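Appendix B. Raw example, untouched.
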Amino acid sequence: MAIRLGEHVIWGHLRNIRKNSTHGSLCLKGEKGEEPFLLHFELTGNCDPDLSGKVVRFFCAGNPEELPPFDRSSLSGFQERQIGPTGTMTAQDWVRLMPCGVEEFIHRAKLGEPPPTRWVRRLYLEWHGQNGRVVVEMADPLVEWFPEDGKDEDKNEFWHLLPNLAPMPECAMRDAPLPDLEIFRVEAGEDPQAGHWSRTELNHSRNENAERPHYELDGEYPGEDFWDDDDECSPVDYEAMAETALVDECLEKEGVPLAELLGGLKGLPRGRTLRDDEAEAHLKPLLARLAMLNIAFDICEHFTPRAAYRVLTEHVLRRERGHPEMIGSGWVQHYCTHDYCRKCQDALNDMPF
C-alpha cells in the first residue's frame, strides 16, 4: 500500500537538472495550531521527459487552509528526509475533478444524478523510499518552471507557467474543445503577486479579480523556534541524542554485508549481458530495497543504468556493509558511483583546496 501525500501538499519544488539525481521538498499542511511539515526528498533517478532537466515548483489549487492536515503520527517511523529511486514523475496528465467528496458523488450517482466533473491537469510524483512507495497526486495544481537563463529563483518574474501538453482523453475531447495553450507571463516591473492563478488557469483561462496565492519556498523548518532558554532538553532532543549515540555505536561495529542484508544476490542477472533499459528495470527494485534499509546509492551524471547496475552488483553489494540497527532511524548510509568514475575523480583532483 502506498503512502499518499497529495491532498496535504501546500506547495513543493523539485530539481532534476543533473542526470540521475532528483531533489526537492514538499510543504504539507500541519495539524491545527502547528507549523507545516517540511518533507525533503533526495532521489536517485530522473523525472519523466516533461520535468527532466528542469527546476519546477507547484502549488495546490484553492485555499491551503481547507486542506486536510498531515498526521505524521499515523505513519510509524515516517522519515522527513526521503531517499530511494524515482518512479513516475510527470506533470503532463489529466484527471477528472469532482465538485464534491467521493461518498457524496457515489450517492448522487446511485440516485441517477451524478454531479458534473471536469478534466484538469494531474501532477504525479512517485518514489520508493524508507517507508515504501510514496505517491504525490495533485489535481489542478499551478506548475511553474525556472528557465536556465533566469538569475534568481526567489524572484517570481523569472518563473513561467509549465503548459500541460498531454493529449486530453478521448471522452473529454467529445465534450469540450482543446484548451487554449496561451501562457500568461508576469512582465518586468509588474508586481508578481498582483495577478491570480485560479483553479481554472491550468486550463489556461485568466481570472483577473482574485488574489494570487503565494508561498515562500524557503521557509523555516517546522519547530525551528522550539528551542527555549531552559536547561532541560525537549523530548525531540533526547530522540536525536539517542540516534547519535546509536550511530557512534554502529561505527564501532563491522556491520553486515549488504548482500546478506538483501537476502543474497541469487537470481540477479549479470550486468554485462543487459541493455540499459533492462539494467534499469533490475536496478530500481534493488535501490528500493536498499532504501528500506536506510541505504542510498547515488549515481553520477556520467554513468548509464547498465554501468551503475554493474558497480552496485559487482562491487558495492559484495564489499560494503550496513547496519540493521539503523533501519527506521533518520540516519542514511550513502554509497555512490563517484568512487568508480574516472571523470568524477579527475574533477575532484582539479578542485583547489
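End of appendix B.
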